[in-house]
Design goal:
Largest sheet: 7 strands, mixed
Distance between the termini: 38 Å
Structural class: alpha+beta
Number of strands: 15
CATH class: Alpha Beta
CATH topology: Double-stranded beta-helix
Helix content: 10-25%
Order of helices and strands: EEHEHEEEHHEHEEEEHEEEE
Radius of gyration: 19 Å
Shape: globular
Length: about 290
């Protein structure tokens, strides 16, 4: 069965498979005319992914999916990750983000691109809202291509060939100083041995360049003294905080958002504690940044 389609017409008279409404000046759009409970046909999927790459963040409202439907939908976009740091349930591809007074936020309120501590970091993230507090809990995204474009030409030249080392540093607090946890930590270090990624990443589809370091996972720039590395990283980290490069979303139950980690960073505002915010997340395996 095809998805519901919008009535807009292409030049050849055929109906467009979906309607995309731009929400932010720099990134972010809302998709209308799709019921994600129904399978996507090929034309709709191609249009959807093209819109995702163009707008970087796609928002769909009132999509009341089950966890199983969420996983099945996500598999259209590629192989799914199993997050290594969180307990897994019936659906290992689902990462549950359920924060409340007894489970405070760990580190989602830091600008980052997902899992850059992997050799092949996350390509797309698909996040579905189940429970939202009355106030707070927004997510912000930054267009890191625009952030790169905002640098001076001299600075772009200086950082063009640099590479940076990444680490799952924010998750290290989950391991206690016990023999069992030390063994688990050593295992994680074997699985994720501090990959090196380019400081400036090229998008494999658009060939546009973006800043690809973030304060959550990036340790240092290779080949530089510590003070030099820190000075450059501070400049690059600050670019995500520029409002003109950002898009901010107010969630509601049934909202699902897709975003492209290759060209964005995001930040989940931690301003709702001790109220509850529950999300379910899938992530599509990416390729090696270049």
């Amino acid at each position: 069965m095809n998805v519901t389609v919008a009535p807009e017409k292409l030049n050849d008279g055929k109906a467009e498979p979906l309607r995309v409404e731009r929400l932010g000046a720099s990134l972010g759009a809302e998709v209308h005319g799709i019921d994600l409970n129904e399978p996507m046909d090929s034309a709709t999927f191609q249009a959807f992914e093209a819109a995702l790459i163009e707008h970087k963040v796609l928002v769909l409202r009132d999509q009341n999916l089950t966890t199983e439907q969420h996983v099945r939908l996500s598999r259209l976009f590629g192989e799914l990750e199993v997050h290594p740091m969180r307990p897994q349930g019936e659906f290992p591809e689902i990462l549950v983000l359920d924060n409340h007074k007894d489970n405070p936020v760990l580190s989602t309120d830091v600008w980052h691109s997902d899992t850059t501590f992997r050799r092949n970091p996350t390509k797309y993230t698909i996040l579905r809202c189940q429970i939202m507090p009355k106030l707070g809990g927004d997510t912000l995204w930054a267009n890191m291509e625009a952030a790169y474009d905002g640098l001076s030409e001299a600075f772009k030249t200086m950082i063009g060939g640099l590479r940076a080392v990444h680490d799952f540093q924010n998750f290290r607090v989950l391991f206690r100083n016990t023999e069992e946890d030390r063994a688990k930590l050593r295992k994680m270090e074997e699985l994720f041995p501090n990959p090196s990624h380019p400081v400036v990443r090229t998008h494999p589809t658009t060939r546009r360049k973006s800043i690809y370091v973030n304060p959550q996972f990036t340790l240092r720039i290779e080949g530089l003294e510590a003070a030099e590395s820190r000075a450059i990283l501070d400049v690059l980290f600050a670019q995500a905080r520029v409002p003109e490069y950002q898009f901010r979303l107010r969630w509601a139950s049934g909202t699902i958002v897709f975003w492209d980690n290759r060209s964005t960073q995001h930040y989940a505002a931690n301003d709702y504690y001790p109220e509850r915010r529950r999300m379910e997340r899938t992530a599509v395996v990416g390729d090696a940044p270049f």
